Structure formats: C-alpha cells, structure tokens
Amino acid sequence: MSARQAEGYDIPAVEEWIGNNIDGLTPPFEWTRLEGGHSNLTYKLEDASGRQAVVRRPPQGVLLPKAHDMSREWSLISGLGPTAVPVPQALGFCEDPEVTGAWFYVMGLIDGRPLYNTEQVLAWVPEERRATLAYSFFDVLADLHSLVPDEVGLGELGKKENYVGRQLKTWYRSWNASVEPAQYDDPRAHELQQYFLDHMPEQGMARVVHGDYGLHNCLIGADSTIAAVVDWEISTLGDPLADMAYALCPWPQPGDGNPADPQLATGAPGFPPRDELAQRYAARTGRNLDKLDYYIGFNRWKSAAIVHGVYARYKVGQKSTEGVDLDALHGRIDQCLGWAEDAVNRLRK
C-alpha cells in the first residue's frame, strides 16, 4: 500500500468527508498520485473492497483568478454525465475549504489512458485501430458541440457572444505585453489580428467549448475509443468551430506544408488525414466548414501568442531555462505565425 501522504490533502479530514457524503466508498483509502491534469493535485482512491474513485483539487499556493476552477469542472461533468459525451461520473463536490484548504471533488475512475506523444500511441494503440481512435475523437467533439447548453444546465458557463472577438482581444494584449520582455515582435502578429477582426464569421448559437481538446485530455479505452474527456477547467461557451479547429490543427494532412509534430500523439502513422476528420465532424453536426481556414488561422495565431508569452517569461528569468531550447521556442512562434498566414492566404484565393 502506498504511503498515507498526499500533497495538498488532509487525508483524515477528506476521508471523513467522503465517508459522510458519498455512497459506495468506504474509508480508509489507498492514495496513489495520478500525473497530468494541469498541475491539479489528482489522486486515485481505493478502499478495502477494491472500489476506486479519483479526487482532484487545485495546486497549493496563491492562484490566479479562475485558474484551476474545480467548480467549473464539477459543473461540466455533472451536466454532461447524462449526455452522449463521455465523462467521469460526478460523485461529490466539497465547497468547504476548512476540510483540506481548497475546494475538491470526487469522480469515478475511468479505465483509460491519455496520449501525450507518439511513443505512447505506438505502445497503446495498434496501427489498425488508429483510424478508430481518430473517428471517436471527433465524434465525441461533434456530440459536445451538438448540445444546447441551456438544456444540460450549462447555460451560465460563460458569455455566449463574440467568443473569437474576446479571444482576439485577450491574446493580442498578451502579445503586446510580451514584446518588451521577449525582445521580439513580428508585424505579422498585428496584421493577422486585424485581419481576423475584420473578417470574423458570424458565431451562431454558443455551444460548450472545451478549450484544450486533445488526446492528452482524453482517456482512451482498451478498444481505442474515447472513454472519457477530462480537464474541463478552461471550458466555456463560445464558437464551436473555433474549438473544433483547435482540436484539428495537430492532426496530419499530407502535402499541406504543415506537417504534424512527430513528437505529438497525432504524429504517429496510421491516422486519417485532417480533411477527412473535418468532413466527418461536419457530417455529424451539419455545420458548414467553408470558413474553416479562418478558424485554423486564428488558432495558429493564438498559439503564436501563447508561445510568445512563454518565451518572454524565460527571457526575463521568470522560468528556469535549464534544458530549454530557446532558439527552438523562438522558431515555434515564427512557425505558428507562418501557418496562420498560410491559412489566411487560402481564404483570400
């Protein structure tokens, strides 16, 4: 049995709370740390009868507003539980910080694994089942985007209007704030931001958007399909095509000049091409993808702004550069802006 220690948890207090509030789990538990999950403190619990669950709380220390929002994750798995979108079972949510210093929730344990890199795909997903995985991945996203938020109790998750416009404002502010510490600017960042503002498609009805939908935030079952979607902490309401394009960008498309990163899970051989996956999503949702390159370009531009901010923090010493290739990081900014420009040029043809 693992040691009765768990970072961020008062084990006796948490076990008492679970014993009083969640049926079917009987303390004491064996606590086992689970990795991943945006630094949230996540542990598998197992009682003497072999029943298992997962407990999750934010990291310790001072947090930014809205960061590591346990109540948001709890709302989403609770609301989505009865739908076709696979999520862990919502078991219990504690809003009393006196128990262990922060809000936490308990959810069902899913028999599945996230995929972070090519090596894991090669080890866990046979090549003949990689198309099955890709189709399941986009079918689940299509099912999420087919839900009406108000009908599943998620209508107050966020602002419903102008999702892309708000994102453009946020990440352009980030880009400009990072110019001086990064000692790097690029006129394309400004030109593209203006293009996206001037040519923004009409959003349509807001849907639940995951915000970071990828194989690293899914649990893949033994049958190579999505057993559950996890890490909902930055989810909100917004434009489903922006969410879909974000999810689509890392997948391969032979000959388009934007090769899949060979280190990412989607860089493994045997996956269907990006355009086939996009059409599968369109067929399942009925959405028009004529403006897909707008959303691809927007997400590439947003990625450049995110990496630019990370690069700036390294340059001013806010993060240790040990083992970090700063030149490669700088090159990634340039690459993302180039991909964004390519998408815009396709739109202009």
Walkthrough of the structure:
- This protein has eleven helices and nine strands.
- The chain has helices at residues 11-21, 70-80, 97-100, 118-124, 130-146, 163-182, 187-198, 240-248, 274-285, 292-315, 326-348; strands at residues 30-34, 41-46, 52-57, 90-94, 104-108, 207-209, 218-220, 226-229, 236-238.
- It folds into two domains: 11-108, Phosphorylase Kinase, domain 1; 118-348, Alpha-Beta Complex (Aminoglycoside 3'-phosphotransferase, Chain: A, domain 2), CATH 3.90.1200.
- The chain is globular and about 65 Å long.
Q: Sheet bearing the most strands, described?
A: 5 strands, antiparallel
> Which structural class do you get from the secondary structure elements?
alpha+beta
Provide the helix percentage.
Answer: 40-55%
Number of helices: 11
State the domain count. Answer: 2
H/E element sequence: HEEEHEHEHHHHEEEEHHHH
Beta-strand segment tally: 9
Compute the separation of the termini in Å: 63 Å
Strand percentage lies at 5-15%
- Which sequence of strands runs across the widest sheet? 1-2-3-5-4
Which CATH class of the largest domain applies here?
Alpha Beta
- Which architecture name of the largest domain does CATH use? Alpha-Beta Complex
Spans of at least 5 consecutive residues with low confidence: 63-67
- Indicate the CATH topology of the largest domain: Aminoglycoside 3'-phosphotransferase, Chain: A, domain 2
Based on CA inertia axes, which overall geometry fits?
Answer: globular
Question: Using only CA atoms, what is the Rg?
Answer: 21 Å
Average pLDDT, rounded to a whole number, is: 93
CATH superfamily grouping of the largest domain: Aminoglycoside phosphotransferase (APH), C-terminal lobe
